[in-house]
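Protein entry
_____________
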Amino acid sequence: MLCRFKALFLTGVLTFLAMIVGMPSAQAERCTLSAIVWEGYTDASFAQTFEAQTGCAVKATYAGSSDEMFAKFRTGKGRNYDIISASGDITERLYRAELVQPIDTSRLKNYDSVFSSFRGGNWNTFDGQPYGVTFAWGPNVLVYNKEKVSAEPKSWDVLFDPQYAGKISLPDNPMTIADVALWLGKPDPYHLSDQDLAEVKAKLLELRPQVRKFWTTAGELANLFQSGEVVLAHAWPLTYTQLTSEGFPAGTVSPKGKLTGWTDSWMISKNSRHADAAYQWVDFILSGEGQKGVMDVTGYSGATELGAEAIGKDRAHALFMDDLSLHGQIKMWQSVPNYDQWVQVWNEIRA
C-alpha cells in the first residue's frame, strides 16, 4: 500500500511539473497574432524579438496587392486576422466596411514619436478618429539591371525603349494606372475621368508588348531579375534591397515629379481575438528597434523619431526622414472614387 501511495504521489508530482513546464508553450499557442501584411513587415529578424518579449507568436499572410489584402481581411468579417498593414488606397474601404476599430493612442507609449505630419492624416483618420497608425512609407521606383541597361534611366520613358522589349515587368495592380496617369501629365492621378482613363488605357496598350510578366510580390520580381527574364521594372524599394543584399548589380532611380507611393498604417480588426497583442505589436514597430527592423529588411522609410535615431543621421537623411521632403513630392495612394472602372481597364490590359 505504501509503495502504491508513493507511486501515486510521484505520478502526481510529475504531472504537476509537466503542467508547469507546458504552460508557456500552451500560452504561446493561445496567443497567436494573425496578420495580413505586405512582404517584409513581419520578418523574423525583428518579429522574434517581439515574440520573446510578449510570448505571443506572429502568424503572417503576405498579400500581393491591396485588393487581395482587402478581400482576405473582409472574409469572416475580419475575424480571420487581428491586424493589417493597410496602404492608403484601402484604409477608407476598411473603415467604410466597418472592419477595423478606432485606435486608442493612449495605449501606445511610442505614439508620440510618430512624426507629426503622419498623425491625423486623411489616409487613416476618419470622422475625427484615428483608425490606423502610420509606420512606413516610400515611393514606387524604377529598378534596373546595371549590366544590361546601358545608362542610368532618367525617366519612365525607358520602359518603352524597343531594345528592352519583352524584358520589363509591372506590378499586377490596378493602382499602376495612377503611375501612367502621371506619365501623361495628369495633375491628380486618383481622380480620372472617362477620357483620362481612355488615354491611360491607350498608353498601357502601347506598353503591353514590352511586358514580360506582371509581378505580385517583391520576391517574385527579384527572381525575375536574377533569372535574366527582366532587366527593368516598376517596383517597390524592397526588390532593390533584396537584390543588392545578394550581390546582384541592381540600380534604382526615382524620376522627379512622376512618383506614386504609399503610406502604410497598422489597423486593428474590429473583431480581433487578440487586440491587446495587436496594440503591443503596433507599439513595438513604432519603437527604435521595430522601425530599424522594418527599414533594414525593406529599405522603406520609417515614420518615427525613434526610428530615425536608431538608424543614425546619415541613413535617416538618405531615407528622407530628417525633413520628409520626398514624402511631399510623392502622389501617395488614396481611395479612388471610380475604382471599379480602374479594375475593368486593368483586367483588359492584363488579358
In short: The first strand starts at residue 32 and ends at 37.
